[in-house]
Structures are given as structure tokens and as C-alpha cells.
Amino acid sequence: YTEAWDADKKSIHVMPDTPDILLAKANAANVSNKLYVQAWEEAKKKSYDMRADAIPIKTAKASRDIASDYKYKETHEKEKGHYIGCPSAKEDPKLALAARAMALQNDRLYKKAYNDSKTQIHIPVDALSVQAAKECQTLVSDIDYRQYLHQWTCLPDQNDVIHARQAYDLQSDNVYKSDLEWLRGIGWLTEGSVDVVKAKKAQELLNDRLYRTRPEQLKFTSIADSPDVVLAKTNAMQLSDV
After folding, report:
1. Matching SMART domains, A to Z (predicted)?
2. Is residue 70 a contact partner of residue 63, using CB atoms and an 8 Å limit?
């Protein structure tokens, strides 16, 4: 009974130009933060033109120069009149203390004497350590260990060079094949070779006779007093002509 009414309640048709809809759209536009700041965002995206002789720029530069000059001369203004009574800067206690601290902290002046003394080394020529070092250098020297022969320079197209190359090639071939000379004339059976063994293993894997056992080869003993056997014997006695 109420099915049509419930279905009609779900289907609502409101015209988009009704006063309530227009009022709701106007209120949404008024309270929208995106539309509120849209003009400001678009203005920020545009480039601005600020000249170098603008009043705010000149004011900022003047303030910066005044502050910089004031900070730069602040310590000097505080120290004015403190040096009265000293004939020179070396007699001033503060400058003397600063110079002394700088000299102590200077690494170059600290290591100057050490660096000058490093170059002044006097070792006797016949010292035991020097002699041992010389003997060790002689032992490990490659020049004294090897005596290189004279390197002759020959043209590559000389007859003796060509003949030597041919003799070397023949000798090299003979030496390369010398381990096969004792095998010459010896017979060889393929039984036990890799290919034969591999073929046998593959044949065993594919052999159906070895893979499965036939039913007639299984030893089977029937039970004498099973119901089937007893029934078969009874039927045979009943049907027997004897």
C-alpha cells in the first residue's frame, strides 16, 4: 500500500531556478573562503613593479646604512680614550696580551723551529744502519739480481728470422701434441664412455618393464574360506553332473 508513496518520497525534483536554490548558492558564494581570497591570489601571481628610487626602498637603504655604520663604529666609540697614556701600541697591555696570544696560537710560528731542525740531519756515512740499508737494497735490487741479455734488433722479413719462426712453430706443435703420441695405435672401446653410460641410464629410466611390475608376476594366494569361494564351491557341487 505504501510502496508507491515510499518510492515517490525518494524522487525529489527541484527546479534549479527556485528562490531557495538561488539564495543557497548566493550564501555559499558569500561564505566561500576560496572565492574570498581569489582576487588576492590572482594579484600575487602577477609580477610587481618596484623601482629602485621608490621611497620605501630609499628608506630601507638609508636605515641599513645607518645601522651598519653604527654597529661598525660601536666598539670604536666605546674604546675611545682608553689608549691615552701609551706612547706606542707595543706598550699597551691589551695589545701586548693579544699579540702574545696570537703568537702562541699561530701554528706556523709554533712549528717553525721544529721544521727548521728537520732539515738539519747529520748521519755518518759508515753508520751501521746505513750499511745495513745499503746491503738490503743490494739484495732486493732487481737490477743486480737480473742480468738482461743484449736485445738484438732484426728485420721481420729476414730469411733467418722467417726460418726461426717456422722451426719454432714446428717445435711448438710437436711439444703440444707430445702427450698424444703414446695413444697412437691403441684401440678403445666405447664401453664406459660418458655417452654410453648416459644412454644406459636413459634406457633404464624409459624401460617400462623395469618401471612397473606386471600382475601375472605378483604372487597371489586366494583365501579358501572366503564367502565368494565357498559360494562358488557350493554352486559347482550343485551344477556338477557327477
Report:
1. NEBU
2. no
| Chain position carrying cell 557350493 | 234
CA-angle at 72, arms to 67 and 75, nearest 5°: 120
DSSP assignments along 193-233, one per residue = -HHHHHHHHHHHHH-HHHHS--GGGS-----TTSHHHHHHH
Give the pLDDT confidence score for residue 166 in this predicted structure: 86
**Cβ atoms of 98 and 107 closer than 8 Å:** no
Rounded to the nearest integer, the mean pLDDT of the chain is 80
- DSSP-assigned states of every residue in 110-144: HTHHHHHHHT-----TT-HHHHHHHHHHHHH-HHH
What's 18's DSSP letter? S
Look-up of cell digits 717445435: 171
